[in-house]
């Protein structure tokens, strides 16, 4: 069994990429505030959310403490895939405490309870309703206009950092409709020719990012002044500070630059 150790939005990893985290001593796990077990790629994982004392104990044992976002930029995707799942399950556990139907406490499903994936789920102690980890679909889209791509500075970003148009899918909406709506709401433009690129679990706290490229059709790009503070049409050679490697936004931008270099 492999162990994954977290603290808030941080993860504790071996000093060198590719090393396996050995079974941690019990004193490190004594203050864990959540744990989940799951399988990924034929391997069994135990994910623990540590308290501050546990995280410090991990550092004293030679582990590196970094944010999960930093780890995604540094470590290979195959190594980080189970880390994303572990974080998603632990973050869901923080809120999956009471039944949304009757308000009674939830408990973990035992063997044979629930449906497929019951090892992740929780069951209501009163009405028996089974609750599964929450997943919130969101779209992110790289919009092209000729040889330029539209970059957006979100109000939550650090100064000088730009990303892409993105947002959550609303009830009754397709992924494509959500992408078109977000472009209209955040940038005031119309887009078309959407092409699916890839998806990525993003446990901050529970998103599934679905990535598209699209072509600008009409309208002058203007920030909405609420979520988006600035918009820029950029050539690949003009890209400002963008999201780090490991994110699907960076994947879209790297593909944009790679394709331009091949023209």
Describe the structure.
With 263 residues, the protein is an alpha+beta fold. It folds into three domains: 2-94; 97-132, no CATH class; 136-261, Nucleoside Triphosphate Pyrophosphohydrolase (Alpha-Beta Complex), CATH 3.90.79. Helices cover 25% and strands 34% of the residues. The chain has helices at 26-29, 52-60, 68-74, 77-95, 175-187, 248-261; strands at residues 2-7, 10-13, 34-40, 43-49, 64-67, 106-108, 122-124, 130-131, 136-145, 148-154, 165-168, 190-202, 207-218, 228-234. The strands form three sheets. Strands 9, 10, 11, 12, 13 and 14 form a six-stranded mixed β-sheet that branches. Strands 3-4-1-2-5 form a five-stranded mixed β-sheet, with helices on both faces. The radius of gyration is 21 Å and the shape is globular. Mean pLDDT is 90; it is low at 112-118.
Set out the fold topology.
Blueprint lengths: L1 E6 L2 E4 L12 H4 L4 E7 L2 E7 L2 H9 L3 E4 H7 L2 H19 L10 E3 L13 E3 L5 E2 L4 E10 L2 E7 L10 E4 L6 H13 L2 E13 L4 E12 L9 E7 L13 H14 L2
Parallel strand pairs: 1-4, 9-13
Antiparallel strand pairs: 1-2, 2-5, 3-4, 6-7, 7-8, 9-10, 9-11, 10-14, 12-13
Key features of this structure:
263 residues, Nucleoside Triphosphate Pyrophosphohydrolase, 3 domains, 5-stranded mixed β-sheet, 14 strands
**CATH superfamily (homologous) name of the largest domain:** Nucleoside Triphosphate Pyrophosphohydrolase
- First-last Cα distance: 47 Å
H/E element sequence: EEHEEHEHHEEEEEEHEEEH
| Integer average pLDDT | 90
Total number of helical segments? 6
CATH class category name of the largest domain: Alpha Beta
Based on secondary structure, the structural category is: alpha+beta
Radius of gyration, CA atoms, in whole angstroms: 21 Å
CATH architecture level-2 label of the largest domain:
Alpha-Beta Complex
Approximately what portion of the residues adopt beta-strand conformation? 25-35%
Helix fraction?
A: 25-40%
**Number of discrete domains:** 3
Q: What fold name goes in the CATH topology slot of the largest domain?
A: Nucleoside Triphosphate Pyrophosphohydrolase
What's the shape?
Answer: globular
Residue stretches low in confidence (pLDDT < 50, at least 5 long) are 112-118
Largest sheet: 6 strands, mixed
DSSP strand tally: 14
């Amino acid at each position: 069994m492999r162990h994954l150790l977290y603290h808030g939005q941080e993860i504790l990893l071996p000093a060198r990429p590719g090393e396996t985290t050995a079974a941690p001593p019990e004193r490190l796990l004594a203050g864990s505030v959540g744990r989940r077990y799951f399988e990924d790629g034929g391997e069994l994982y135990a994910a623990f959310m540590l308290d501050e004392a546990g995280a410090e104990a991990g550092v004293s044992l030679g582990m590196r403490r970094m944010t999960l976002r930093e780890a995604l930029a540094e470590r290979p995707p195959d190594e980080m895939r189970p880390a994303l799942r572990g974080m998603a399950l632990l973050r869901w556990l923080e809120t999956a405490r009471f039944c949304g139907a009757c308000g009674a406490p939830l408990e973990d499903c035992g063997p044979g309870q629930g449906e497929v994936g019951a090892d992740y789920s929780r069951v209501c102690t009163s009405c028996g309703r089974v609750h599964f980890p929450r997943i919130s679909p969101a779209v992110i889209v790289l919009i092209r206009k000729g040889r330029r791509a539209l970059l957006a500075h979100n109000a939550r970003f650090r100064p000088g950092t730009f990303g892409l148009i993105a947002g959550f899918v609303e009830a009754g909406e397709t992924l494509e409709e959500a992408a078109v709506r977000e472009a209209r709401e955040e940038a005031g433009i119309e887009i078309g020719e959407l092409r699916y690129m890839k998806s990525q679990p993003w446990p901050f706290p529970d998103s599934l990012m679905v990535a598209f490229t699209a072509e600008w059709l009409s309208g002058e790009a203007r920030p909405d002044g609420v979520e988006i503070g600035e918009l820029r049409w950029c050539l690949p050679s003009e890209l400002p500070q963008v999201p780090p490697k490991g994110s699907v936004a960076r994947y879209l931008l790297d593909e944009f630059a790679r394709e331009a270099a091949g023209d």
